[in-house]
Structures are given as structure tokens and as C-alpha cells.
Model the fold of this input.
Amino acid sequence: MYLEKISLVNFKNISSQTFDFQQKINCFVGNNGVGKTNVLDAIYYLSFAKSYFNPVAVQNIKHHENFFMIEGAYNLNDRVEKIVCSLKRGQKKILKRNDKAYEKFSDHIGLFPLVIISPADRDLVVEGSDTRRKFIDGVISQQDKSYLQDLISYNKVLSQRNALLKYFAANRTFDALNLSVYDEQLHNLGTKIYTKRTAFLEGFIPIFNEKYQIISEDKEQVNLVYKSQLHTSDLSDLLKKSLEKDKILQYTTCGIHKDDLSFQIDEHAIKKFGSQGQQKSYLIALKLAQFEFIKQQSNVLPILLLDDIFDKLDEQRVAQIITLVNNDEFGQIFITDTHSERTENVLKQGKKEFKIFKL
Done:
């Protein structure tokens, strides 16, 4: 699978532009602010029907314009697949595959697998647990539609339970039977999600460790630890035990929506004890493990987006990363960089065909 071409109209700072891509490596070079990352984000949009960098869809429309449109043509098993995503101010976003609009965007997820590595990934280290849960959920959901549906259902029930707790507090009332309906649904859905997260991480963590050791040349030991309240207790028991607390706080204090990942280097939190280069190496290893996992699950080579990959890494780590991605285990790759000479020199060391777009 690879993306043959993409056309952008009024997307972020791009008025109108079309790119025809090389099957293997494509590079966007130029100064900061010219739109390199925006092109990568448009490619991401075609796989997920949303921006990687700005979740507010209308803010991806170019200033003073009324709509944006992204159109891509994929080669999938020697068949052309046309994907169009568009948004007009005041209207709903439209996603079409071969001129047929999707009713549910979730039906599209996983058809064109993609992994992005970006400086924005640092949020996984510095932000709260919600960001790390979204990472796990995003990886599993690309290949497991039932997981995605369970997650959507869980969040809906959680919202309803929280609304009921607020209602109890506002009206100084309590209905145990009504609440038990939501508790049972949360237990059933949450247990299924927890089981799949556990199974996923059992396979994912060894892949992640292997990728990091290659990048760091075995200089540091890293770990990824899954933290969940369900490790030690059944969710229905947790909900019963936390009931009084939930009534006071007016929201649900336990469940899989509290799960987290602990990022560690030499048994310490990488957020506090890892250098910028170590943190970036950790995140790159995390994303390359994501790539490997999706490839194993789908038997398709995902598209790989490398945004500003060389920043904050020494030459040795850059060389190790290029060696990693410059083999037949990877399919189509898109790279952004501010230094065209550096990019060209690095790519000439490899065996893959490449194309450079100067923006």
C-alpha cells in the first residue's frame, strides 16, 4: 500500500497544491512555517479523518476561507482507492471512499494504517494519563473494530453515570437501582477493554524494548509499565467501594478511564530523569514499535510519517534510526526537515528511491 498523490485546497496555510509521490521515500524540506508539517498532517487526515495536531476541525480551514478539502489516491493491492475529506464552515465534515460517503468515520479507521513520529509526541511524556491512554487506544483501534466500539460505548455510559451522580447531588436524592444499571455496563465494557489492553501490552513492550536498544546502542535500559486499578480488583467491586466518594465528587473515580502508562529509563521516570535526546529516542522507539505491531496484525506496511525527526538527536542516534527505517521492513515514508543537504546526504546512504519537495 502507498499514497500515489494528494491534493490540498485551503488546508491550514496551503491554498492549493498537488503532490505526486515516490513509492518509497518522500521528503519535504524548507524553512520553518512553510507548511512541511501541514502536508504530513493532511496525509494523516486521510487515514483518520482528523488532524494529528489540532483536534478542532474548523481551525484547519485556511484563514478567511470557507472550506478545506483533502483528496488522496492510494494504491492498495494494485487497485486505486480515492479518499476525500472535506469540511465547510457551519456544516459536518464529510469523508468519502471512492465517491461514497461514510456514515460512521470509525468504519474507515484501519483501512490505510499509518504511524506518525513528531515533536508533538512529547505530550506523551509531559501531559496527563489521558494522552497515554489515547496512544494505547489508537494503536489497538486501528486493527480491532470491536475494541473501538467498546471504548465509544464505555465513554458514553461513563458520561451518563457522571450526569446521574450530578443529578443526585443537585436534587439531594439517590436511586441505587438506576445507578446499578450503569455500573453493570461499565463493568462489562471496562473488563473487556482492560483484557485487550493487557494482551496488547504483553506483545508490545518487548518490541518497544528491542527498538530502543537499537537506537541507543544498548546504552540505557528502558521500561513501559501498565498501571490499572483493575490489576488488583474487579471493576464492579471498585465501583461499590468508591460509591460514597463518587457521590461527594459527582463523578466516577475508578475504572479503565484512569489507566496509565509509566515511561521509565533505568527504573526512573523518564519525564524527570531523561535528557531531551533520551526522551525523543524513547518516543521514536514507542512509535516504531507501534509500526511493527500494526504491521504484524494487518499484514500491511503502514505509511510512516517522520516529522522533524533529526531535531535534538546526536548524529549516532540519527544514523541508527535511518538504518532502522532504511530496509524492506518499511514501506512508504514521508520526512520533513529544515536542512535539505542533511536529508539528502542521509538518504543517499540508503538503498531506497527518494523524492525531495522543496517548499
Summary: The chain has two domains: 1-113+300-359, 124-299.
